[in-house]
Write a structure and sequence with these properties.
433 residues; alpha/beta; 5-stranded mixed β-sheet; 16 helices; 35% helix; binds pyridoxal-5'-phosphate
């Protein structure tokens, strides 16, 4: 056997693991990587294997895609990094006894939505499931055929309905469903309608010969109307934005107005247009919210302290009408002029690297406001450099179109412009080769 000193024998697992310290991985994982590399006869590849593993962990990135709520990037970004000091999640500070984790946030959300009551669960899929299970298990729920949708990630209305124990009653047709169609379904002797469910089609759009019943109309049916809003625009008049509602929001249904129109309950996501953490909000009549709260599934679907803290921060910002504390609205409110100036400055700083700035179109993303674009500005460089950009220490996620790499600045923090400049400068020698 060769001695370890001559360097040809495989190094010990421990030595190889120690040599991977710069990967930043904890020791037990470095040991695993070292073992795998030795077993595969790939000792020289150990560092790359460690890097691959580190990159499979959550990594901060620069979102230059122009998709503001990018599901692959965790939808709405949050301000600051959330640490978790002890919090009064379920402690009533007045009595010192066990309290409700829903009481504080429920109160804030109800105030923000203009509803009697509200509660939070883990996501909107959970909110819809809980509402159906608590209010309609073993009973019937009329839904328009035009709203029996799949949102993606296997959220399909008929399947969620089945899991909840409620029975779906199809109403109307794919493109047209009128109030009379609901009336007829509810009046059928074999139908025991617990609620009527209206679902925002979110990620698709039917144009042309279409008709659907409004919430005001449905509210006349005498059965509680539950509206799954999905995207979670809080208030169509956006009082938290200095300039009023942007035009790209025009057709988006909002919680405040939907409840005012007579919905008994609304549900929506915390991390779409609401701009908070991943969560699902149920808001509306207090007797119905109370039934959701008391249902056994509520315990399985309840959010943790980190999510509650982030929801609380976001909701307080809305109540203070301060969009600057909600990163999604900061992105949405950036003016094209501001973005054009930043793009021009980036192009100037990488002068000679063949980068130009030009107008772009961002999208809200996450199935919110489908087909709608937001005017934006960014920088462009010839060639497909998406993989190179992604492989940087702080990955930059770009879009490639027609053989050009496009970096849209609307979702990029101004402090990160410097990272884009560095990346573009690093590209230059590769391109001139
Ligand atoms: C996005 C969406 C959902 C799912 O919400 P999650 O928070 O992703 O669970 C459900 N319904 C509608 C209408 C949606 O747009």
């Amino acid at each position: 056997m060769k001695s370890s000193a001559d360097g040809t024998r495989p190094p010990s697992v421990d030595r190889l693991a120690r040599s991977l310290a710069s990967s930043g991985l904890p020791h037990p994982l470095r040991v695993e990587v070292a073992r795998e590399a030795i077993a595969a006869g790939d000792v020289p590849g150990a560092a790359r294997r460690a890097d691959d593993l580190r990159r499979a962990l959550l990594t901060p990135v620069v979102n230059a895609t122009g998709v503001l709520l990018h599901t692959n990037l965790g939808r709405a970004p949050l301000a600051g990094a959330f640490t978790s000091p002890p919090r009064s999640v379920e402690l009533d500070l007045r009595t010192g006894e066990r309290g409700s984790r829903q009481a504080g946030i429920g109160r804030l959300l109800a105030a923000a939505c203009g509803s009697e009551s509200a509660m939070v669960v883990n996501n909107n899929a959970a909110a819809v499931l809980l509402v159906l299970a608590a209010l309609a298990a073993g009973r019937d729920v009329p839904v328009s055929r035009g709203e029996s949708v799949e949102i993606g990630g296997s959220f399909r209305v008929p399947e969620v309905m089945e899991q909840s124990g409620a029975r779906l009653v199809d109403v109307g047709t794919t493109n047209r469903t009128r109030l009379a169609d609901y009336r007829r379904a509810i009046d059928r002797p074999d139908v025991d309608a617990a609620i009527v469910l209206k679902v925002h089609p979110s990620n698709y759009r039917v144009d042309g010969f279409v008709e659907s019943a409004t919430v005001d109309e449905l509210a006349t049916l005498g059965v509680p109307v539950v509206v799954d809003l999905g995207s979670g625009l809080l208030d169509a008049s956006t009082p938290w934005l200095p300039g009023g509602p942007p035009s790209w929001l025009a057709d988006e249904p909002a919680a405040v107005q939907t409840l005012r129109s007579g919905a008994a309950l609304v549900t929506f996501s915390g991390d779409k247009l609401f701009g908070g953490p991943q969560a699902g909000i149920i808001a509306g009549r207090s007797d119905l919210v109370e039934r959701c709260r008391r249902h056994p599934l509520a315990r399985a679907l309840r959010p943790g302290g980190l999510v509650l803290a982030a929801m609380q921060e976001t909701t307080l910002a809305y109540l203070d009408r301060d969009h600057t504390r909600i990163p999604f609205w900061v992105m949405a409110a950036r003016t094209v002029g501001e973005l054009q100036e930043r793009a021009g400055s980036i192009a100037q700083r990488v002068e000679g690297a063949d980068v130009c700035d030009e107008a772009m179109e961002s999208v809200p993303g996450a199935g919110s406001a489908p087909g709608v674009t937001i005017p934006s500005w960014g920088v462009v460089v010839d060639g497909d450099h998406a993989a190179t950009m992604r492989s940087r220490a702080t990955p930059i996620i770009a879009r490639v179109r027609d053989g050009r790499t496009m970096l849209d600045l609307r979702a990029v923090e101004p402090d990160d412009d410097a990272l884009i400049v560095e990346a573009l400068i690093d590209l230059a020698p590769a391109r001139s080769r």
